[in-house]
Amino acid sequence: MINPFDDNYFMKQAFHEAQQAYDLGEIPVGAVVVANNQIIARAHNLTEQLTDVTAHAEMLAITAAANSLGGKYLHGCTLYVTLEPCCMCAGALYWSQIDKIVYAARDEKRGACKVHPSLFHPKTLVTNGVMEEECGELMKSFFVGRRK
Fold it and tell me: Catalytic residues, which ones?
C-alpha cells in the first residue's frame, strides 16, 4: 500500500507556507511540524510583519507544535522546512528534542550544517534535498525581485 503522506507531501505543505511568506514580502521560508502523519503546526517567516528577528518559520512552528502537544518537547515529531535552519533555529530545535528535520534547500551562507553541524541534537535525524530545486528557485526569485 502506498502512503500518500511522505516527505514530498509534507514538504509541499511547507512550500505552500513559503509562498505565503513570499506574497507578504517576507523571505520565503515555510515550515510544518508533523506528528503521526498529521500536521500539528504550520508557519512561515514573519520577521518583517512582526518586526521580530526571531520570527523565523521554524521558531514559530516549534512554538505552535509545543502548544498543540501541551509540552515543550517535540518527541515523535518531524519538521519540514524549505530552507536549511540557521544557527538560532537549530539551537531551538536541539532543545525541542525533535526526532527528525527534513529541509529542502541548503543555505550556503548561514545554514547550521555549514556553520556548526553539531548544533542539531545527536538523536535528531537530519535529511535534505526534498523539493530542493523548487524551494531554491522560490528563494532566488525573491532576492532577484528585491535587487531590482
Answer: 58
